[in-house]
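Q: Second attempt. The first request was missing the SMILES, so the protein and pyridoxal-5'-phosphate are both included now.
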Amino acid sequence: MSEGPGRPKRPGDSTRAVHAGERERPASDAITTPIFQTSTYWFRDSEEVRAYQEGRKPRDEYGRYGNPTWRAAERKLADLEGAEDAVLFASGMCATTTTFLALLPRGGHLVTTSDCYRRTRQFCQEYLTKLDVETTVIEPADPKKLADALRDGTTLFFTESPTNPYLRVIDVAEASRVAHARGALVVIDSTFASPVNHRALADGADLVLHSATKYLGGHNDLLAGAAAGGKELVGRLRGAVGVLGGVTDPHSAYLLLRGMKTLSLRMARHNENGLRIAHMLEAHARVRRVWYPGLESHPDHATASRTMRGFGGVVSFELDSDLEGTMRFVDRCRIPYIAPSLGGVESLIEMPALMSYWDKPRAEREALGITDSLVRLSCGIEDVSDLLADLEQALASL
Ligand SMILES: *Cc1c(COP(=O)(O)O)cnc(C)c1O
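A: Got both inputs this time. The predicted holo structure:
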C-alpha cells in the first residue's frame, strides 16, 4: 500500500480500517474473518511437519504461537500504524511487561516518565528491580531532562503520549533524536492517541504499544494489548509472547478486528466531544483547571497541535471542591458510567484519587499529582449536546 509515482494513492483511514488485514488466506468466502477458536492445528502427515519446521510450508502449529484471527488483527493494526509488523497480547499490561522483558538486559537501564499508568510504574519497581534493571523517572515532555537521564547502556526510553491523567504530549521526533543519539530505543504507549490521532513510528519511535482494550477495541467489551514496529523488534516480541504466554483469546481478537473497522469514525466523534467538553469545563466557574491538549492552556498544546491530528476523548479536570463535593458531582452525572478505563463508545467518569490511588495516603497521592478533586472523563460517542447538558446539571449541584 505504499505511495509513489505510478502507484495507487494510499487509501484513507476509514477504508484501511475496514479492509486492511482481512483478505489473506480466506478460509471461506465470508466477509468477516472467522474466529478460529482452536488451541492447536493438525498436520496432514509427518512430511508436512518437516516442511513446516524447515520453513517450506508457512502455517500455524499451536495456539500460543499463532492464530489466523489474531493475524488479521495484527495486519490491520500494522497497516493503521504504518508499521512493518504488529503483535497482539492478552492485555495492554501484557504488551508492556512482555516488551520490557524481551528488550531489557539484566542490569539494564530504562528511562520513563512520571505521569504514567500506575501498573507500569509498579512493574518497574517490583519486577524489573529483580533483574537489576534501573528505572529513571523524568518529567514528561522535556527533551532536556531526557538527555540528562540517558546514559551509555540505556536500553529504552518508554513513555505514554498523551500521558495519564494529565495528557502530556511528547514531541516524539525530538525525543527519538535525543534517545537514538545515545543508542536507546524509543517505545511509545500510544493508547490515548490511537493511530488516528498520532503515528509515533512516523515521528521516529521504534515501537508503539497499545492497550487495545481502549480505543482500538472501542466498545468496553474486550481486553487486549498490541505492539507495532519494525519486523525485527516485533519478531523479538512475538518470540517472547510464545514463551511468556500472554496470548489473546481468538474471540477477543475477533472483537478487536470488528472494533478497529470503525476506529476512524469513532475517533472523529471522541475528538469532537472531547474538545467541546474541555472548552465548556474551562469556562465554568466551578472548574479550577482543565487538562486537554486541544486547549491553549495545556502545557503541550503547541506540540500536540503540531504532531497530532486530534486530541482524543479523555478530559481531566479539577473541580473547585473537595473529595466529598467531587463525589457528589460524579454521582449526579447521569450519562457516564462510574468506571475505570477509557476509549469506548460509552462515556466513563472516575476520580483517580478514589479509583486507582485510594490505597495511598493523601500526601503520597498528591505528590503524584492526584488531588482529591481531580476527575477523569472519557467522552464516548454520545451526542455532545446530551453530554454537555448532563455535565452542566451535575456542576450546578456543587
Ligand atoms: C489501560 C492502560 C494500560 C493497561 O492496559 P490493559 O489492557 O488494561 O492491561 C496501559 N497503558 C495505558 C496508557 C492504559 O490506559
